[in-house]
Specification:
Number of domains: 1
Organism: Paramecium tetraurelia
InterPro entries: MFS, MFS_dom, MFS_trans_sf, MFSD1
Membrane topology: Multi-pass membrane protein
Helix content: over 70%
CATH topology: Growth Hormone, Chain: A
Structural class: mainly alpha
Family: Belongs to the major facilitator superfamily.
GO cellular component, one term: lysosomal membrane
Strand order of the largest sheet: 1-2
Strand content: under 5%
Distance between the termini: 15 Å
CATH class: Mainly Alpha
Amino acid sequence: MKQELYTSWHDTKIRWLLLALLCLFQAGCSLCIDFPFVLATEIQNYYNVHQQDINYLYAIYSMPNIILPFFGGIIIDKIGIRSALLIFCAFLIIGQSSCVYSAQVKDFNLLKVGMFLLGLGAEVSLLVTQGALLTKWFFGKEISLAFGIQLTFIRVGSIIAVNQLPQIYVNYGNSFVACMTYCLATILIITLSCIIETVIDYVSDRRDSNHYQSQAQLQLEQQKPVSCKDLKEFNYGFYLISISCMCGYCIFFILQLNALRMFQIRYNLTFFYQTLLYSLPYIICIILTPIIGHIVDKVGKRPYFLILSGFLTTLSMLVYSLNNDCSVQNECFNYALIGQILNGMFFSLFAPLIWPCIPICVSTNTQGTGFGVVCSMQNFGLTVFPIIVGKILIEETAIGYLHMIYFLGFIALIANISNINIYFYDRYNGNKLMSPTVKLPDYQIILEQEDEQN
């Protein structure tokens, strides 16, 4: 009798190669979808529109994702991660191509169509599909660390965008076409990385299917099919996490969407300081997010960290709500600096905490649906709230931006209530979120083979 030790690729260093490819995809995708944030002034000048229209542009991007991520999650659970990822990448290419054509013919309505199509592809592929793939390869191992690293590279993409896109715009003679073409080239490159991801995952599944026998196969066969009825089985804690995710992401991204113009109009800062302050939260996230993810894997205590993140964003809103006299250029830099540091610390703590909570709260075969529901709620907020902010900023004045901060402070209050409720719900329902990441045993199968002796 001879025994052969089998180890899945999920338990080897190959999972880190897949994470690297996933991070490349995240950075490139984020670079492209952030252009309304970092080119707000350029878009206004090029298309002769206002900041209100920039907020509507982001609302249009988020609009299809109120519903699509939920159904995208079901699609993932039905047809598989790989097929879904390639389908959504096709939407990215078509959407960015529409943005390029919009810039060529100078038609703002076509830019709206492009953003809508980018929303169809980016949110599901960036969050739902990639989140499900990351969970598949890292669940029971270094899942919070893995989420922290990939979220860091989303921020890397944002920093590249704020530094590269305005420079490309100027270097090519105030050409918005050049910026959109650069984004299209980036989309094509990350699509290639996505194809490599799917090949690695496919080969890994084929290897595993040839070796996983008996008990493992029986468990897969006994999993019930995914349906909309799964929503009734998600517990109260899951929906609290969804509300917290919606509020946290809305606060951060709506503030960043309007940050450059706010620093210019309300705080009277020069372009250098505007760009520096805009990049600062992302830089903080790059440094802290993987570290926090690793710490959470080791110690757990997720509800405590969520409450702390809510406290930090509330402090940030309080700093921004101070009504200062900024008539002298750059005099109010320190107030904006403190606000952005707190904002960066909040998001570095919040982002690697919230996503790994989802697979903890749902069953294995409904993880795609779980990610989809959370993304749907998140994009509900990112559709409705920017429209409200757009109404607040019909007149771009210092007072208008102060009222925007008051509105974001109200969202922060909802987030804090949700985070506190998450703590109490988890405390009386098994303390799953308080526990460190469970180290699952290596999935090894002993293949017994008879020695043939003649």
